[in-house]
Design goal:
425 residues; alpha/beta; TIM Barrel; eight-stranded parallel β-sheet; three-stranded antiparallel β-sheet; 12 helices; 13 strands; 13% strand
């Protein structure tokens, strides 16, 4: 599956190209995994999926964006800390991204932990005022938004006092909250050109079907940490163990809820790659390595309710002791080529919602090599959409990836700008 391709050269030029103007089409056919729109008089806002590609303003779209995870959450409060609704620091970040022609951001649309959802629960008008400001600024700067609605899988069940397995019960309080929040958000912003797609969660599949009853249950309230309460459950039981069978029910319900309101925008899972043993995890509860066909089956099954194929892509090597993503016998280049082959065959565009250097400690030279290697894969494989992790998030666990215009990773913003130029020649 390995492709021969010329290497993409990074020139690190700074500047801002003029944005394209809105183009109208007389006839459009939009086909997605869950709906079709035929005979549209003008192009709908945001993205659509047509014949296996993302489209924007009537033209096929390819682009590399960036995760700006805290663009909204810094106002709502992070990790149990108080909200600061007057915080407008995100605007400077959006301006920086616009100067580098970065076309879109992916971000958390609500709290990571239950406590971080307080503004939505108790001051809903203020929550939407904050979101309105973000949408208005994104429209002004012509930056697309890909909101991820339910980032961490235990958060909603913990909020409503249910076990995590209730994601598999459409009549649960967990589903009722999911539908309410989704309906409010999609209804309010479905007409904004800044909203490009709707994403369900973040890497839920990676925690599912892991052999051993004690695994995949989600974190508990960390009483031993000197931090504010997070609202997580204090204990977990076997009913909290995450399984694909429950995730698939949630995905289907989310897609149906969105599609009843927004008939055109892509609906995405936000998931990581299936593990090398995903098929056997799912069917047998074992760590037996999957065949290539079995891995593909799980990749497609994980995205069956969605309009695209979702993947997260951090640098890895076949020599790593714990190779926990993708097909076991493929390195990152072969894996990317294989996923693009699948994408074209099933006519679902690939969205690499996160990519970046690996988690291991490394020199700055090795970090840069890994980054440029992965970005080159996005460009030479013409991945429809991908997003670097992560912009302007100063956090104890995020130091290996935090990108700003004034730290040592500023060159990455220049490289993204050049990559977008290359993709749109």
């Amino acid at each position: 599956m390995k492709k021969e391709s010329r290497m993409f050269k990074f020139s690190h030029q700074v500047g801002r190209n003029m944005k394209g103007f809105l183009r109208y089409s007389i006839f459009a056919v939009v086909v997605s995994g869950s709906a079709a729109l035929v005979g549209c008089a003008s192009n709908p806002p945001g993205l659509t999926v047509q014949d296996g590609q993302f489209y924007k303003d009537g033209q096929a779209f390819k682009g590399v964006g960036i995760n700006f995870y805290t663009v909204l959450q810094r106002k709502l409060g992070i990790e149990g800390h108080p909200s600061n609704l007057s915080d407008t620091s995100y605007r400077e970040g959006l301006e920086t991204l616009a100067q580098h022609d970065i076309p879109f951001i992916r971000f958390g649309a609500n709290g990571f932990y239950p406590k971080d959802t307080d503004v939505y629960l108790n001051h809903r008008e203020e929550y939407f005022k904050a979101f309105d400001m973000l949408v208005a600024d994104a429209e002004r700067l012509d930056i697309g938004l890909v909101p991820c609605l339910f980032w961490y899988f235990p958060t909603v069940p913990d909020l409503v006092g249910e076990s995590i397995d209730q994601w598999g019960n459409p009549d649960s309080k967990t589903h009722a909250f999911m539908r309410e929040f989704t309906t409010e958000l999609v209804s309010r912003y479905k007409d904004s050109p800044a909203i490009w797609a709707w994403e369900f969660g973040n890497e839920w599949i990676h925690d599912s079907d892991i052999p051993g009853e004690e695994h995949g249950r989600g974190w508990t309230e960390p009483d031993h940490f000197p931090k504010p309460p997070l609202g997580l459950a204090k204990t977990r039981t076997i009913k909290d163990k995450m399984y694909r069978k429950n995730i698939y029910v949630a995905y289907k319900a989310f897609a149906e809820t969105v599609r009843a309101i927004d008939s055109t925008r892509p609906i995405l899972s936000g998931d990581a790659l299936p593990r090398p043993s995903a098929y056997h995890n799912f069917h047998e509860g074992s760590w037996t390595a999957d065949s290539l066909a079995q891995w593909e089956e799980m990749f497609l099954q994980d995205n069956a309710s969605m309009d695209g194929l979702s993947a997260h892509y951090y640098y890895f090597s076949l020599n790593d002791q714990h190779h926990d993503v993708g097909y076991m016998e493929y390195g990152p280049a072969e894996q990317m080529s294989f996923m693009m082959e699948i994408s074209k065959r099933v006519k679902k565009p690939l969205f690499v919602g996160e990519f970046g250097p690996g988690t291991k400690d490394k020199t700055l030279e090795e970090e840069r090599r890994q980054f440029e290697f992965l970005l080159n894969l996005m460009v030479t494989n013409e991945v429809p959409m991908s997003a670097l992790w992560n912009f302007d998030f100063k956090h104890v666990d995020q130091g290996k990836w935090n990108v700003t215009e004034d730290n040592h990773r500023a060159y990455m913003l220049d490289a993204l700008q050049e990559a977008n130029r290359e993709l749109n020649k």
